[in-house]
Specification:
There is one protein chain. With 297 residues, the chain is an alpha+beta fold. The chain contains seven helices and ten strands. The protein has a seven-stranded mixed β-sheet with strand order 1-2-8-5-10-4-3. The protein has a three-stranded antiparallel β-sheet with strand order 7-6-9, with no helix packed on it. The chain is globular. The N and C termini lie far apart (43 Å).
Length: 297
């Protein structure tokens, strides 16, 4: 049920050598197998867990930055049941630059997203979710239910949750309904009798799910926060949840790697959607444009 991209003493290659039955697997082979497994799980059950794929130094940097922003901006909970009355959320994290700019292009997560959507996908939103002690369970929902498409449909949204703390059933691990991405209807908002399971995972792991999957944040019955990063993506032809081009200062976006610039929308989809007078939008950031119009190919 879980897909791990970790390679080490207990990895697939070491296990094969110890038993002397299978040829040693290269790191690339292990990663390819894990990627294929994750994509198969998202397709079949609607989600996959990538175990321990985020580096500890990046997790520490994100922790420190979130706490600083909370203090500086005096972040307080919202006043509705969906966002949570004991939950702190910080939106538009890419506007703060580092270390958040490393999240959307992480080499052990982005390939899964691209496999579910396609390489021309976009960042939809990037936010933090810190579920505090005493928080109640979030209403079960699907992330693409506001998009007017007949279900079930191919994925147009693929989202992920990075665990900055351990995610347990007790502290509010995301609750999921396996296979629900294939159902003909989204959940009825506020319905209380939906059976779900907790996506428990260790700090540094990432939950990836199909945008049609029924899910919701769990209740926190502990005395500690459950902290995660909601890194959400959409297909290149879908409107982003957060307006990346207006929400991120252009001077900040200009310092991003080209791959991230493309992901936030400074590019075109299929050599057509998103152009500016047949020019590459990346030129607005001072970068070199590489666009060739679909009509000129």
């Amino acid at each position: 049920m879980k897909a791990s991209w970790r390679v080490g003493a207990r990895g697939a290659g070491a296990h094969a050598r110890a038993n002397d039955k299978l040829p040693a697997m290269s790191e690339a082979m292990v990663k390819n197998e894990a990627l294929e497994r994750a994509l198969r799980e998202v397709d079949e059950q609607g989600f996959a867990v990538l175990d321990g794929v985020i580096e500890e130094d990046l997790l520490d940097a994100i922790d420190e930055a979130l706490l600083r922003i909370e203090r500086e901006r005096s972040i307080v909970p919202a006043s509705n049941d969906f966002e949570g009355r004991a939950t702190l959320r910080i939106y538009n994290l890419l506007a703060y630059g580092e270390p958040f700019a490393r999240i959307p292009i992480h080499s052990r997560v982005l390939p899964v997203i691209e496999g579910v959507l396609d390489p021309e996908c976009l960042v939809s939103s990037l936010s933090s979710i810190s579920i505090g002690p005493g928080e109640s369970a979030q209403p079960i929902h699907s992330d693409d239910q506001v998009i007017a498409l007949r279900r079930p449909h191919p994925p147009v949204v693929c989202n992920s949750m990075w665990a900055l703390t351990d995610f347990t059933e007790a502290n509010g691990a995301t609750r999921i309904v396996p296979g629900s991405h294939k159902w003909p209807d989204p959940p009825e908002y506020g319905r209380q009798d939906i059976e779900s399971i907790p996506a428990e995972m260790k700090r540094g792991s990432v939950l990836v799910w199909h945008g049609s999957l029924w899910h919701g944040g769990g209740a926190n019955r502990t005395s500690e926060r459950r902290v995660g990063i909601a890194m959400n993506y959409c297909a290149g032809f879908i409107r982003q949840q957060e307006n990346q081009q207006l929400g991120i200062p252009r001077a900040v976006a200009a310092g991003f790697p080209e791959r991230l610039q493309r992901l936030i929308g400074y590019g075109t989809y299929r050599h057509l959607i998103g152009h500016i007078d047949k020019r590459d939008p990346r030129e607005l950031l001072g970068g070199e444009g590489t666009m060739r119009s679909i009509w000129d190919l």
